[in-house]
Write a structure and sequence with these properties.
By secondary structure, the protein is an alpha+beta fold. It is built from nine helices and nine strands. Strands 5-7-6-8-9 form a five-stranded mixed beta sheet. It has a four-stranded antiparallel beta sheet with strand order 1-2-3-4. Strand 6, helix 5 and strand 7 form a beta-alpha-beta unit. Helix 6 packs antiparallel against helix 7. It is globular.
Length: 306
């Protein structure tokens, strides 16, 4: 019996050490074993053709991986328009995805942390002032004259400054590329540094063209600064302590945020709960029942403003 067992083991050893078995073990076919870009690629020229950049007078500025695998993030600029936009193309190169916001599922339902802005970087000498220059609490707002949520917020601003002389609002023009006449209107408003023209624009009235003698670069500087600060939509509200509120909020919520900044946590102490802040979104929507760039939030909470 032992003799037969030893013979069987010997035959099995020969089988697994045969050239065919060795070749099978050594062979490895091509496959995507590394990063996504090992198998998928796209360049600016190809992206331009897919997006019909020539037809729309667009230039592909950058291509990078989106937060979600399988999708390219394409940054572009439009001829004759300031700023840049972002769209997405799937790896199969079959679909264009616009106005996308990616939220990790483990973060779903969580309040996003408030972004802090260094307000010393924002010059206010050319901003439009609503309220008293002596106000101790200064709120900065990047606004688009064609943004319906900026119009809603402006109504809240006027109500606030009637009762609160200690609060002032500094408006900086930040025209979105999705609004075709916003840049010209912003230039006219800035050239004249006119609160009246801004309110005319908010009312949907046609503004006079900026004078030929006006050579302001304020709007372009605002767009450049906004991009550096990470602003993507309007209205963008920056509170006195630097917290960014990306979108429209009603007066009572806004005042609560202004009057009650979160206290700094002491060592070995848990930080206090943060004030209500909105969920970020992207511009484009026209209907006033949705946020202009921000996503709609719960009632009496801020709705947020690519």
């Amino acid at each position: 019996m032992l003799k037969y067992l030893l013979a069987s083991i010997f035959l099995l050893t020969l089988a697994f050490s045969s050239p065919a078995a060795d070749n099978a073990a050594a062979f490895q076919g091509q496959g995507c074993m590394g990063t996504c870009t090992d198998c998928h690629s796209i360049n600016k020229e190809e992206a331009g053709k897919l997006l019909k950049a020539d037809k729309f007078k667009a230039n592909i500025k950058d291509i990078r991986m989106s937060p979600v695998k399988g999708i390219w993030e394409v940054e572009f600029t439009m001829e004759g328009k300031p700023g840049s936009g972002v769209v997405y193309i799937d790896f199969a190169k079959k679909f264009l995805i616009e106005r996308a916001t990616f939220t990790p599922l483990e973060k779903l339902g969580e309040e996003p942390p408030a972004q802090k802005i260094d307000i010393s970087r924002i010059p206010l000498d050319k901003a439009l002032l609503f309220g008293s220059p002596a106000a101790t609490k200064k709120v900065i707002i990047f606004s688009d004259p064609e943004c319906p949520y900026c119009v809603k917020l402006h109504t809240e601003i006027k109500n606030i400054i009637k009762d609160r002389p200690d609060v002032a609002f500094y408006i900086k023009m930040f025209p979105l590329e999705t609004h075709p006449n916003a840049y010209k209107s912003s230039t006219a408003i800035t050239c004249n540094k006119s609160n009246k023209l801004l309110e005319m624009a908010y009312a949907g009235k046609k503004l006079p063209k900026a004078k030929a003698s006006c050579k302001t670069d304020e709007v372009d500087n605002n767009l450049k600064l906004g991009k550096e600060l990470g602003l993507h939509g309007t209205p963008a509200i920056i509170l006195p302590d630097g917290r960014l509120i990306p979108g429209y909020v009603p007066a009572d919520v806004l005042l609560n945020m202004i009057d009650n900044p979160p206290a700094a946590a002491k060592p070995d102490e848990k930080p206090p709960e943060k004030a209500e802040t909105p969920t970020a979104a992207r511009p484009d929507e026209k209907a006033p029942d949705k946020a202009e760039t921000p996503a709609t939030a719960k009632p009496q909470q801020p709705s947020s403003g690519k």
